[in-house]
């Protein structure tokens, strides 16, 4: 008679929650498409203007070879034409239209537009929020003054620019336009980036915000400034 095998209870494995290692921030694709078209249109008009005048001046130089200033002016116009043409790729780079992160934030480093930096490399972060006009210049300035001490608006597309060292030990600026600009700056603050500024722009007016990110409250009502670095990182990652 064959002995009955003893059944062993198998405890199912409990899947551990995955720890978030990094935070991503994305472009506003619809906004960037409009900005690309605007930059392309303005550049095209300027190229037509410069190219047309440059050619006309050079042709005039052939007809009047004894006038050297005509040749010089024509060459200068063509140089400006080439310089304007070279700005188009940089404008397209600043306004990406793919749903890919343009800023990736980790605990000790950050990747901005494909370039990776240590946290200590970031000299300053500047958030620029563009506001809509509310009236004439005096009314706009009054409105601008009224928001300087308030918490910035959430879920707004804004410019988030980074001052970083270049290869020659000088400072360069990386320009980005992100959806949820305030949330991105807040995440940087939580990760330990303390050198920041918030600027409001309205037509030709621009003023520095006086709002302290440390006053921003968490979901449980605590101000960020009252939390330890470990607690802020835990909330973020």
How is this fold's topology laid out?
Elements: E1 23-25, H1 29-63, H2 68-94, E2 103-105, E3 109-112, E4 115-118, E5 124-130, H3 137-147, E6 158-165, E7 171-174, E8 177-178, H4 181-191, E9 196-202, E10 205-208, H5 229-236
Helix pairs in contact: 1-2
3D structure, described in words:
This protein is α+β, with helices and mostly antiparallel strands. The chain contains five helices and ten strands; from the N terminus they run E-H-H-E-E-E-E-H-E-E-E-H-E-E-H. The strands form two sheets. Strands 5, 6, 7, 8, 9 and 10 form a six-stranded mixed sheet that branches. The chain has a four-stranded antiparallel sheet with strand order 1-2-3-4, with helices on one face. Helix 1 (29-63) runs antiparallel to helix 2 (68-94). The radius of gyration is 27 Å and the shape is elongated. 16% of the residues are buried.
List keywords for this structure.
237 residues; alpha+beta; six-stranded mixed β-sheet; four-stranded antiparallel β-sheet; 5 helices; 39% helix
């Amino acid at each position: 008679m064959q002995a009955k095998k003893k059944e062993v209870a198998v405890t199912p494995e409990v899947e551990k929650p995955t720890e978030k290692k990094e935070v991503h921030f994305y472009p506003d694709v619809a906004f960037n498409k409009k900005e690309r078209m605007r930059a392309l249109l303005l550049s095209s008009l300027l190229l037509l203007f410069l190219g047309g005048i440059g050619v006309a001046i050079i042709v005039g130089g052939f007809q009047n070879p004894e006038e050297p200033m005509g040749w010089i002016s024509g060459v200068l116009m063509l140089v400006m034409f080439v310089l304007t043409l070279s700005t188009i790729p940089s404008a397209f780079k600043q306004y990406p239209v793919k749903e890919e992160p343009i800023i990736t934030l980790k605990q000790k480093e950050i990747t901005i537009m494909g370039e990776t930096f240590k946290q200590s490399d970031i000299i300053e972060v500047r958030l620029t929020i563009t506001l809509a006009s509310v009236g004439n210049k005096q009314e706009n300035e009054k409105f601008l003054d009224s928001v300087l001490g308030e918490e910035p608006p959430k879920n707004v597309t804004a410019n988030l620019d980074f001052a970083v060292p270049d290869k020659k030990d000088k400072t360069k600026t990386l320009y980005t336009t992100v959806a949820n600009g305030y949330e991105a700056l807040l995440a940087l603050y939580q990760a330990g980036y303390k050198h920041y500024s918030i600027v409001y722009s309205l037509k030709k007016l621009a003023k520095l915000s006086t709002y302290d990110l440390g006053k921003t409250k968490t979901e449980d009502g605590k101000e960020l400034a009252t939390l330890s670095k470990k607690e802020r990182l835990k909330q973020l990652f």
